[in-house]
Design goal:
Layout lengths: L4 H12 L1 H6 L15 H22 L1 E3 L6 E3 L3 E3 L5 E3 H14 L10 H6 L5 H7 L2 H18 L4 E2 L8 E2 L14 E3 L6 E3 L19 H9 L5 H10 L1 H24 L1 E2 L6 E2 L7 E3 L6 E3 L13 H4 L20
Antiparallel strand pairs: 1-2, 3-4, 5-6, 7-8, 9-10, 11-12
Length: 326
């Protein structure tokens, strides 16, 4: 930090005399030097003194403002966290205009390098530059932007609240805890899917997506007012997740109906790979016909296929009943 010989010599002389200890209030009134201070005590005092000295030097140095191209003393300028310096008047007007227009993405260093990198100003810099009202609006706009970028954001279902509630930080999105939301305003804990009081991560959500709802939602184009209303009410991420889950379950049902046969005893669906159509359920041990689903007597299971007039007569090895999906 202190590289030049003159500055270094001045610091050595300053630290070795009583003037240094007097400035840090570390000497007694009798001018007896106190030397029993640990480095942990002296370090913050030295850092504070160094910062004060740098600020004093900054205030008396002239800097060209990159916005208005005029030179100003440091006392009339702001040095941002990125070390770029601008006159306070220009920066206050620029940031204030951006905050008023809602374009908080431009509230940052106007230097072309920082603009290209997309660096935004931190809270400390914003507080130093603009007024309290602009700071409150800036914080509100940042919160609003973060919520709008959150696909799992939902509004509190309490009628008098309606506060936006962000997604929880859950590693496993498939876990039941991913549905839990707690309103930061009224502290109402609810399920993000059904908007009812939180029913736990294990209990099935009572919300059910119907075929008509899915058809209506998928039939609406992006940007449609009705589609936006649905997403705003239930949460865009939740709606897309529920619709995708419904479509998956629908395709599973179609496959089960077309490619399997349910056991007449317990309802477990069975898919035959090879062999005859006499099936024995692995769960309940019920004998049944794979073609028609009729129960078969365990003592004479093949009589069903050998009785003339029966629908499955001579079809013990028939395999073209279902429309197999390739």
């Amino acid at each position: 930090m202190w590289t030049r010989e003159g500055v270094l010599y001045a610091w050595v002389a300053f630290l070795s005399g009583d003037e240094f200890l007097d400035s840090l209030s570390l000497s007694s009134k009798s001018h007896i030097t106190i030397v029993n201070h640990s480095p942990s005590t002296l370090l913050p005092l030295l850092e504070s003194y160094d910062a004060h000295t740098q600020n004093a030097a900054f205030a008396e140095t002239s800097y060209p403002c990159a916005i208005c191209l005029s030179p100003y003393k440091g006392r009339h300028c702001v040095r941002l966290a990125c070390a770029h310096v601008f006159c306070r008047s220009c920066l206050t007007d620029f940031w204030g205009s951006c905050i008023m227009e809602g374009d908080i993405g431009r509230v940052g260093c106007p230097d072309p390098g920082c603009v290209k990198a997309g660096h935004e100003a931190g809270e400390e810099d914003v507080i130093r530059v603009v007024g309290e009202e602009e700071v409150r609006r800036w914080k509100w706009l940042r919160t609003k932007r973060a919520l709008e970028r959150d696909p799992g954001m939902v509004h509190c279902p309490v009628a008098f609240c309606q506060t936006p509630v962000p997604s929880p930080e859950v590693d496993d999105d498939d876990s039941g805890w991913a549905r839990l939301r707690t309103c930061p305003t009224c502290e109402y804990a609810f399920c993000a899917f059904c908007r009812r009081t939180w029913h736990g991560p294990i209990s099935a959500c009572p919300l059910r997506v119907t075929e008509s709802f899915v058809e209506e939602y998928l039939g609406l184009p992006e940007g449609d007012a009705r589609r936006a209303q649905i997403e705003r009410r239930w949460g865009r991420g939740n709606v897309k997740r529920l619709v995708a889950k419904y479509e998956e379950e629908r395709m599973n049902r179609e496959w089960m109906d077309n490619c399997t046969m349910g056991c007449p005893g317990c309802g477990v669906h069975v898919e035959k790979s090879v062999g005859c159509n006499h099936m024995t359920c692995a769960k309940c041990k019920q004998h049944f016909c794979y073609l028609c689903g009729e129960k078969l007597p365990p003592s004479e299971p093949y009589k069903h296929f050998n009785t003339p007039g029966k629908k499955c007569f001579s079809k013990l090895f028939e395999e073209d009943l279902f429309d197999w999906v390739v």
